[in-house]
């Protein structure tokens, strides 16, 4: 069965939903964790923007040295070149919490006598998540500016986008090693007393921003029940309270299936009308929806005219990015256990053109429909990507 309704619902309405989601495809089922959830709320801050100051390693200095042999005390210059400084590069990991604020590449070693070159430094690889966007900032911007102001206000430029697994971005190149005095030997200068200093490595201020944090994003106005829904379908434990803006940072949860597939769902902070103008830090929250393969719009079905909530959410998404509403969207009508919710939902179906699933996250009603539908959307997206590759 697709539905597991615990609340009273009109039979015609239920049959309409069953006809909408019944297919000949066999769904794999979501697994329920055998490990009990913790009784206390564990809030793990998700770091989605990180200020980083990067310094490439300096090149090693060239050596000034002259070779003296028993048979030829004036054998000539033999100072070796210095080694190259190490680059600072980015590679993928899970999140930004382990990324240091100041990153300094290793310096190259100094050149040695007998034409021995200095050792070049190893490149410093900084691991960042797939989907990280790298902004180059002005040198006078500090970490406090990142915390208090949105990135678009700071006037930086996007210089890297690590959207594919294995991509590398070089943020600060190491300096080249200096030449030793043996390099300057020529017919007119038999005993050069000069050598080059190693070049200074590049440096710069960067902001690392995660835009792809999950497969699906829960989007809605404050108090729509997004956190309760995430707690109901995953083992995540976001804070839940009967007042707006309980969620201030994105929270991630994982839905596990019987074929060992795992899908991530993000509970994004609540939006306000005018979020595309950064009202209520809306731009900081909307950017997380840019690369989700599908958007799960959560509305409170107990409010009058719930379809207006959905239309307002779609409007905010379109104003932020005209392409966002064109991707897969699923409307989740939450709080169906409250009075008037059934009547409001019946009226909403006359106005909405996107799929709707009624649930009660608090009572645990009809949640299997949600996890089955997001798996169907994910499988469809995977098939489309495979067809594009072929």
From TrEMBL:
The lineage of its organism: Eukaryota, Metazoa, Ecdysozoa, Arthropoda, Hexapoda. GO terms for molecular function: GTP binding; GTPase activity; magnesium ion binding. GO terms for biological process: ribosome biogenesis. Keywords: GTP-binding, Nucleotide-binding, Ribosome biogenesis. Gene3D superfamilies: GTP1/OBG domain, P-loop containing nucleotide triphosphate hydrolases. Residues 214-379 form the OBG-type G domain. The keyword GTP-binding applies. It comes from Ladona fulva. This is Mitochondrial ribosome-associated GTPase 2. InterPro entries: G_OBG (IPR031167), GTP-bd (IPR006073), GTP-bd_Obg/CgtA (IPR014100), GTP1_OBG_dom (IPR006169), GTP1_OBG_dom_sf (IPR036726), OBG_GTPase (IPR045086), P-loop_NTPase (IPR027417).
């Amino acid at each position: 069965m697709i539905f597991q309704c615990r609340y009273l619902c009109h039979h015609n309405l239920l049959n309409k939903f069953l006809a909408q989601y019944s297919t000949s495809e066999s769904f794999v089922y979501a697994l329920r964790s055998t490990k009990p959830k913790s009784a206390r709320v564990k809030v793990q801050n998700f770091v989605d923007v990180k200020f980083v100051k990067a310094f490439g390693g300096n090149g090693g200095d060239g050596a000034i040295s002259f070779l003296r042999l028993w048979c030829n005390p004036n054998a000539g210059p033999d100072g070796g070149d210095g080694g190259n400084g190490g680059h600072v590069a980015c590679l993928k990991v899970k999140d930004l919490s382990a990324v240091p604020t100041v990153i300094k590449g290793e310096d190259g070693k100094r050149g040695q006598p007998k034409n021995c070159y200095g050792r070049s430094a190893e490149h410093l690889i900084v691991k960042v998540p797939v989907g990280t966007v790298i902004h180059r900032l002005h040198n006078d911007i500090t970490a406090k500016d990142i915390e208090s102001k949105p990135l678009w206000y700071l006037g930086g430029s996007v210089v890297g986008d690590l959207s594919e697994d294995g991509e590398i971005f070089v943020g600060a190149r190491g300096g080249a090693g200096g030449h030793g005095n043996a390099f300057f030997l020529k017919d007119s200068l038999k005993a050069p007393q000069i050598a080059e200093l190693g070049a200074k490595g590049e440096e710069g201020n960067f902001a690392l921003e995660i835009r792809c944090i999950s497969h699906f994003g829960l989007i809605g106005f404050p108090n729509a029940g997004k956190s309760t829904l995430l707690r109901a379908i995953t083992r995540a434990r976001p804070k839940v309270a009967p007042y707006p803006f309980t969620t201030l940072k994105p929270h991630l949860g994982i839905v596990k299936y019987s074929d060992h597939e795992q899908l991530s769902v993000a509970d994004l902070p609540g939006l306000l009308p005018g979020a595309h103008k950064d009202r209520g830090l809306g731009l900081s929250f909307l950017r997380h929806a840019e690369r989700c393969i599908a958007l799960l719009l959560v509305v409170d079905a107990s409010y009058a005219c719930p379809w207006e909530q959905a239309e307002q959410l779609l409007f905010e998404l379109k104003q932020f990015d005209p392409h966002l509403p064109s991707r897969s969207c699923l409307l989740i009508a939450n709080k169906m256990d409250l009075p008037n919710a059934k009547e409001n939902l019946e009226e909403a179906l006359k106005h909405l053109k996107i799929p709707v699933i009624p649930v009660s996250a608090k009572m645990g009603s009809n949640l299997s429909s949600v996890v089955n539908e997001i798996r169907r959307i994910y499988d469809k997206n995977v098939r489309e990507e495979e067809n594009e590759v072929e």
